[in-house]
Amino acid sequence: MGVGTMKALIITDGTESIKSAALLIKETLTGFKSDICQAKDFIGNELLSSDVFFIGCEDPSPSSFAFLEQMLSHINLSPRKCGIFSNKDKTNKYLKKILKDCEAVISEPLLFNKDTLNKKTLNKWLKDFKK
């Protein structure tokens, strides 16, 4: 595939901190056509057409993730790469757990705060997705 033809989907809970992180991921993920989708608006087909995907939320088990959780337990996304991100360690553990059954290749979770969320940190985290 040529540059810019790879597709990335970023699914968020819509909270401000996660939305900011998603926008920075989208900016930093060069060579991809990236879309950001709030989980409450997620219908599923967006994920199937993506080469890589990212999921982020602030707190474990947000109500908007109910459909996403159900879908991930019934779909095989192997060998797609998935990045999970949050500003809370317990939330990254929750995200890892809901992805277990779909067999996506999960990168090391991104745990961030307002001081560590920058393009340098993201470039390092995203390097495996750009391969």
Describe this structure in words.
- With 131 residues, this protein is of the alpha/beta class.
- It has a single domain, classed as Flavodoxin domain (Rossmann fold), CATH 3.40.50.
- The protein contains five helices and six strands; from the N terminus they run E-H-E-H-E-H-E-H-E-E-H.
- The protein has helices spanning 16-28, 45-48, 66-72, 89-99, 119-126, and strands at residues 6-12, 32-38, 52-56, 81-86, 105-106, 110-111.
- Strands 1, 2, 3, 4, 5 and 6 form a six-stranded parallel sheet that branches.
- The N and C termini lie close together (12 Å).
- The model has no long low-confidence stretch (mean pLDDT 93).
Provide tags for this entry.
single chain, six-stranded parallel beta sheet, alpha/beta, 22% strand, 33% helix, 131 residues, Rossmann fold, 6 strands
Quick take:
With 131 residues, this protein is an alpha/beta fold.
- Overall shape: it is globular
Integer-rounded radius of gyration: 13 Å
CATH second-level architecture: 3-Layer(aba) Sandwich
User: What is the CATH T-level topology?
Assistant: Rossmann fold
Task: State mean pLDDT (0 to 100 scale).
Answer: 93
Low-confidence stretches: none
- The CATH class is Alpha Beta
CATH level 4 superfamily: Flavodoxin domain
Q: Write down the secondary-structure element order.
A: EHEHEHEHEEH
Tell me the span between the first and last alpha carbons. Answer: 12 Å
Give me the secondary-structure category: alpha/beta
Largest sheet: 6 strands, parallel
